[in-house]
């Protein structure tokens, strides 16, 4: 360790690339981990005064991995709440039905569309959030509402699942700084909501004792949440925002760790090559191969720990600055703030250390094989730049990448994108491994215009002599340009193909779609000439299992409801004359066929047995039901869109769009987050590429001081030497850019062929040369600075 410490102290400049790479990696890791650990689920503020919350039991998980909990019917919830109220220490047990509502101002829906899905509440549930009236009285009948920011007696326009309505404000709610929503009479909330998903308890007794008593009372009929467990009730729309943000942070962490390994590996490899005589001397005076390896590990450990101590606080300081941009871009929910997370800093330092050690493994192994005789050798030419192992690995990678591109059109749709990325990565790896061979013809081609000048000759021959040095500079440029062109081109090409594919699904010219709302109301749909489907969620029970499925209500001859709703918010439990059509996959999972009977539990909690009318492999949804039946049991459901077969009728919360415009909007909305992820990756990759290129050139130029003195003795001026170094640097960057762009273009051609075979029509290939030029220009500027700094800093005189 003492020898390693002496090396680090006296030759710190040669470790600068490793230091900067690890420091940047640790800073990225620390900031990402701080943001991730700060992003914790939170129970909605409207339950702040309810220490205990009771939910229906789970029946499985949905497609997002979230617990599936069928709602209670109003009568089930009311009965259970009555039992819970009888427990000592419980002041109230309040069912909390929620329904969709948005306020209309000048005919336009306002507020957050997703949050509005659960914006309507029963007045009794105001106690769960500690909400009180500042003025007026509670609502007691249909058409009355209490809300914050309103005045008693005021008439307001609202939009619900039924359509636009005008309500009278009876009370002004004090919302305690949170959006409390709209409160209506309990009977109205029960009638408008699709069942009851929760019962909240307000207490005077000990939380723990009451929770245990509640669990003993209800048994398997419900789940009692207390303390931090209440955070499970964070709305799904908010949880998905956190999930999206987490994916970006995970990508940044993984990319930061990988790039750190990559830069440290290339830096240590070049350093070991330049230190052959030094390491040979150590071997000559008795150092064993194991001691050489341990010395390099110790050097890297010292540099990594020093860099980690610097990088971790920088990341922690930057994390709060990133919180607001993440909220603004939809990667974190409103109100998110980064907090002090010491565990994140410690973890970042450790990960940075392990990444650095992983990067030095190969270089340390090679260094340990240096012979003592290397101390007596001095050669300007690179010794054997292409060992047999590099040949074999490079050719195998190229063959595997080419084979993947060849078979890609025959793969399943789900596998094509993965195969395309895999093929590109293999080809990039092959190009990097074979670059010492590929560099020679490319250098001769690029340098041909200046072959008759003295500077051109020096640049060409110096580059061809130092193939390993050029390959070390070109490799990170190759990878970055290749990935930039590949990813941006692939996404742009797929977006074009997605637009073609999605537009083909609509054989009409126009659609009626939501306008700043989560869906279309029944009134908006009823006035249109066209077709639509009403989405819902149902639980299907067969003798051995219960599963949740997406359902769709379609208009058909058997769509009329069976009878009027019975009781307050109650709906029929038997649906004589109605039936279900199952998708073939659904029927296979349930093990049923046409003519069988299935037991359904609807969104409102009611149960019914329905016959299976047919099994259709082209069904609109896993379970297709009459629209009126879905509406009867899911009064809060909203329609996604109407496929118009005539002129659109104006409706609140809706707009008519040409199919092409709608498809482009959908593609753009999906592409926004993809582009954000993409440019975050490209920016971080470009940063590491700059470090790798700059460090490689700094080390290379510093090691060529003797060569530069010879040029001065031969009569070259400082300006001419700078010109030679600049030209060599630009040539190395150009080689990497050419190889990267070529590999990416080949991969994109294969991806386009696969997409065309899937769609059965031609697709435009999009190659983002602008992005490639921007990355290449950035690398070139860094290379020029890195080549010039050592020359300007140190005298090159004889």
UniProtKB/TrEMBL annotation:
Residues 545-576 are annotated as: Disordered. The keyword Transmembrane helix applies. It comes from the Bacteria. Keywords: Cell membrane, Membrane, Transmembrane, Transmembrane helix. The keyword Transmembrane helix applies. The chain crosses the membrane at residues 248-273, 302-323, 343-364, 391-411, 423-447, 470-492, 676-701, 721-746, 766-789. Its main location: membrane. GO terms for molecular function: transmembrane transporter activity. GO terms for cellular component: plasma membrane. It is a multi-pass membrane protein. Residues 251-372, 681-793 form the ABC3 transporter permease C-terminal domain. It holds the Pfam family FtsX. It is found in: Cell membrane. InterPro entries: ABC3_permease_C, Macrolide_Exporter_MacB. PANTHER family: ABC TRANSPORTER PERMEASE YTRF, MEMBRANE COMPONENT OF TRANSPORTER-RELATED. Belongs to the ABC-4 integral membrane protein family. This is Putative ABC transport system permease protein. It comes from Actinoplanes lutulentus.
């Amino acid at each position: 360790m003492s020898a390693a410490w002496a090396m680090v102290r006296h030759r710190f400049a040669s470790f600068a690339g490793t230091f900067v790479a690890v420091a940047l990696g640790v800073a990225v890791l620390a900031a990402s981990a701080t943001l991730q650990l700060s992003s914790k689920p939170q129970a909605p503020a409207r339950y702040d005064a309810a220490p205990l919350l009771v939910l229906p039991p789970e029946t499985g998980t949905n497609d997002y991995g979230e617990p599936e909990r069928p709602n209670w019917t109003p009568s089930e919830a009311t009965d259970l709440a009555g039992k819970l109220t009888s427990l000592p220490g419980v002041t109230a047990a309040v069912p909390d039905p929620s329904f969709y509502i948005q306020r209309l101002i000048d005919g336009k829906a306002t507020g957050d569309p997703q949050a509005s899905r659960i914006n309507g509440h029963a007045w009794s549930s105001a106690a769960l959030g500690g909400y009180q009236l500042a003025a007026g009285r509670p609502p007691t009948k249909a058409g009355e509402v209490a809300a914050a920011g309103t005045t008693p007696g005021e008439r307001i326009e609202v939009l619900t699942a039924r359509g636009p309505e005008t309500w009278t404000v009876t009370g002004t709610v004090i919302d305690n700084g949170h959006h409390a929503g709209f409160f209506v009479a309990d009977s109205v909330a029960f009638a408008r909501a699709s069942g009851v998903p929760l019962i909240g308890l307000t207490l005077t007794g000990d939380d723990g004792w009451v929770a245990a008593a509640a669990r003993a009372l209800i048994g398997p009929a419900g789940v009692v949440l207390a303390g931090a467990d209440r955070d499970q009730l964070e709305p799904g729309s908010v949880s998905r925002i956190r999930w999206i943000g987490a994916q970006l942070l995970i990508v940044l962490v993984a990319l930061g760790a990988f790039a750190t390994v990559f830069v440290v590996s290339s830096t240590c490899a070049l350093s070991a090559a330049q230190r052959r005589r030094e390491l040979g001397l150590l071997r000559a005076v008795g150092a064993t191969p194991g001691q050489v390896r341990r010395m390099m590990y110790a050097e890297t450990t010292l540099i990594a720990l020093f860099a980690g101590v610097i990088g971790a606080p920088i990341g922690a300081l930057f994390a709060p600055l990133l919180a607001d941009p993440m909220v603004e871009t939809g990667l974190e929910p409103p109100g998110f703030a980064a907090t002090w997370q010491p565990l994140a800093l410690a973890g970042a330092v450790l990960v940075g250390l392990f990444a650095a050690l992983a990067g030095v493994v190969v270089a340390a192994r090679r260094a340990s094989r240096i012979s003592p005789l290397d101390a007596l050798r001095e050669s300007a030419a690179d010794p054997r730049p292409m060992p047999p192992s590099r040949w074999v690995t490079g050719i195998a990678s190229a063959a595997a990448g080419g084979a993947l591109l060849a078979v890609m059109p025959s793969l399943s749709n789900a596998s094509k994108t993965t195969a395309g990325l895999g093929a590109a990565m293999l080809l990039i790896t092959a190009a990097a491994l074979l670059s010492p061979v590929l560099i020679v013809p490319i250098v001769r081609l690029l340098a041909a215009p200046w072959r008759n000048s003295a500077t051109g000759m020096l640049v060409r021959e110096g580059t061809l002599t130092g193939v390993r040095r050029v390959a070390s500079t070109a490799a990170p440029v190759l990878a970055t340009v290749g990935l930039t062109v590949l990813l941006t081109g692939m996404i742009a090409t797929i977006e074009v193909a997605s637009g073609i594919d999605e537009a083909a699904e609509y054989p009409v010219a126009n659609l009626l779609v939501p306008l700043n709302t989560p869906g279309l109301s029944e009134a908006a749909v009823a006035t249109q000439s066209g077709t639509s489907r009403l989405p819902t969620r149902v639980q299907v029970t067969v003798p051995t299992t219960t599963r949740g499925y997406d359902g769709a209500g379609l208009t058909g001859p058997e769509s009329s409801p069976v009878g009027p709703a019975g009781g307050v918010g109650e709906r029929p439990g038997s649906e004589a004359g109605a039936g279900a059509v199952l998708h073939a996959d659904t029927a296979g999972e349930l093990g049923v066929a046409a003519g069988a009977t299935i037991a359904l539990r609807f969104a409102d909690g009611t149960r019914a047995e329905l016959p299976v009318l047919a099994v259709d492999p082209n069904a609109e949804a896993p379970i297709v039901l009459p629209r009126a039946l879905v509406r009867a049991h899911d009064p809060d459901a909203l329609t996604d869109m109407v496929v118009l077969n005539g002129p659109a009728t104006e409706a609140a919360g809706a707009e008519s769009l040409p199919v092409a415009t709608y498809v482009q909007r959908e593609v753009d909305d999906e592409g926004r987050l993809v582009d954000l992820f993409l440019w975050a990756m490209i920016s971080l990759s470009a940063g590491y590429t700059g470090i790798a290129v700059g460090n490689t050139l700094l080390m290379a130029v510093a090691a060529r001081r003797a060569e530069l003195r010879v040029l001065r003795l031969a009569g070259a001026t400082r300006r001419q030497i700078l010109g030679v170094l600049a030209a060599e640097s630009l040539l190395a960057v150009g080689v990497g850019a050419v190889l990267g762009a070529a590999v990416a273009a080949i991969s994109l051609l294969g991806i386009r062929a696969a997409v065309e075979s899937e769609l059965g029509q031609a697709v435009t290939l999009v190659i983002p040369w602008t992005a490639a030029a921007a990355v290449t220009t950035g690398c070139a500027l860094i290379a020029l600075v890195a080549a010039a700094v050592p020359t300007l800093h140190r005298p090159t005189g004889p």
